[in-house]
Design a protein that fits this description.
- This protein is an alpha/beta fold and 158 residues long.
- It contains five helices and four strands, in the order E-H-E-H-H-E-H-E-H.
- The chain has one domain: Rossmann fold (3-Layer(aba) Sandwich), CATH 3.40.50.
- The chain has a four-stranded parallel beta sheet with strand order 2-1-3-4, sandwiched between helices.
- It is globular.
């Protein structure tokens, strides 16, 4: 199974989701059975590390984002991933606008997995440090819900 987390610039929310979800997969011994990545809708931060505030907040919770680098959503992502998980409604609309005609990969709001089908993960970029902790709370909840669904589909294996 292959999961792609998508936000606006790929330096706050989506890399945080990638890091949190990877950590959960590793804790469950499933990291080798899934591909997890993140990207942004726009090109503003391509090649840059996650925002230092996102990294600091994640580190306090045992998640290392330092090795991640921003990239932009690409046409082949619609072929490479089984689901695209948007952080907000604008990201979801942008995914749909960029979707190739042949693609049938589902795109959903990430917080659906936390029981909030219409709620967005707010962008903490222009806010204070507290916003990054709030984002982590939401991402951790949705990641646990996603993990439950993934575990239901993955059979035990090597």
């Amino acid at each position: 199974m292959r999961v792609l987390f998508v936000c606006l610039g790929n330096i706050c929310r989506s890399p945080t989701a990638e890091g949190v979800f990877r950590r959960l997969l590793e804790a469950r011994g499933l990291a080798h059975r899934m591909a997890v990545d993140s990207c942004g809708i726009g090109p503003w931060h391509v090649g840059k590390a996650p925002d230092p505030r996102a990294q600091e907040a994640a580190t306090r919770r045992g998640v290392d984002l330092s090795g991640l680098r921003a990239r932009q959503l690409a046409a082949d992502d619609f072929d490479r991933f089984d689901v695209l998980l948007a952080m907000d409604h604008d990201n979801l609309e942008a995914i749909e606008a960029q979707r190739p005609p042949h693609s049938r990969v589902p795109a959903r709001l990430f917080l659906e997995y936390a029981g909030h089908p219409d709620r967005a993960v707010p962008d903490p970029y222009f806010g204070g440090d507290r916003g990054f902790d709030e984002v982590l709370d939401l991402i951790e909840a949705a990641s646990r819900g996603l993990l439950e669904e993934v575990e239901a589909y993955l059979e035990p294996g090597p």
